[in-house]
Amino acid sequence: PEGSTPTPVATVSQYACKRRTTTQNNNKIFTDAFEVLAESYEFNEIEGRCLAFRRAASVLKSLPWAVQRLEATQDLPCLGGHTKAVIQDTEPSKLCSFRRQRSCHSLFTSVFGVGVKTAEKWYRRGLRSFRDILTNSHVVFFPAGFLHYGDISRAVSEAEARALGNIIDEAVRAITPDAVLALTGGFRRGKEFGHDVDYLLTTPELGKEEALLLSVIDRLKHQSILLYCDYQASTLDMDQLPCRRFEAMDHFAKCFLILRLEAGQVEGDLQRVEGDSRSWRAVRVDLVSPPIDHYAFALLGWSGSRQFERDLRRFARLERKMLLDNHALYDLTKKEFLEAKTEKDIFAHLGLEYIEPWQRNA
Ligand code: ATP
Ligand code: MN
Ligand code: MN
């Protein structure tokens, strides 16, 4: 019957890595509101609240049923007083002002290269639009994203991601026929749209992966489809313990690219706004090159979602006394690194049931 809870809520874990979350979100109304608030708290550096709303959103995303009444959420984890107040809609005025602030924030952070800090700085200076920024003499640094802003702020479709996959695959094979190439990020989780396309690429022979990445970039450049490249060399040092903070970038060689994708390469058509008749668009692509012995950790780490990753690390730390990051799993009790060839090995080390990539949309 309507309003009832078909699954026993007591079985819902507080950890996203113990829940199965597909792309089908039955509580978008609430999770959107929670995410507006989470983002707002993040900008204002109120970390606790931010995290609380992110966790609450993630719990609701995992439910196979739609929340109809507040009572239905009674036994759910991570839903505190504040989140319940939002569900009850007792804070609509607050939500409204947050939403106004957020529309500027997300306008700014949607520019490739603009992070939370920069967006917040611009906002505090009273800047509210791109024109404000471009005409403000204090802003001396213009991120690369401004170059292709219209294109890269538009979602990438599955068909476009596939077309890019073919281009990358062709480039990789031409250089190293037996290279390992894997789709990661949102598209690996079965999302229909993304803000970029993420790939992992490596070589069966240890130590050759960085050269492969550089050669791929070089090839894309010669094909005249490389519009922008931010290359970061590897800074891997295995003497270091895994970093405790998830937000820390990993140390693999990687590049953040903007590529030119031709309409003719895409099954169907490019994602375009009405009236746009160009034969190509710009797309953001991330390529990461972990050494083959770190492959499983890199694949798990880059497959996301961000919330799923956060909770994997939190679960490892709090429930297993282990440190997990994109490079390794370290057992603090045994004082040793735990080896893994596949993602399944990592879940097994953590004593977790395996969660498929399409169930990680936490
Ligand atoms: P979208 O569709 O918006 O791209 P996504 O899940 O693919 O969604 P990304 O920002 O592309 O999001 O990142 C993919 C995953 O890779 C994230 O979930 C995050 O865990 C991981 N990740 C992203 N950037 C880094 C980085 N610099 N260092 C380590 N891990 C990262
Ligand atoms: Mn992505
Ligand atoms: Mn990415």
Any overview of this molecule?
- It is built from 13 helices and ten strands.
- By secondary structure, it is an alpha+beta fold.
- It folds into four domains: 9-90, DNA polymerase, domain 1, CATH 1.10.150.110; 93-146, DNA polymerase, domain 1; 152-294, 2-Layer Sandwich (Beta Polymerase, domain 2); 300-359, 2-Layer Sandwich (Beta Polymerase, domain 3).
- The strands form three sheets. A five-stranded mixed β-sheet has the order 2-4-7-6-5, with helices on both faces. A three-stranded antiparallel β-sheet has the order 8-9-10.
- Strand 9 and strand 10 (336-337) form a beta hairpin.
- It is globular, with a radius of gyration of 22 Å.
- It is found in: Nucleus.
- One of its GO terms (cellular component) is nucleus.
- Keywords: Magnesium, Metal-binding, Nucleotidyltransferase, Nucleus, Transferase.
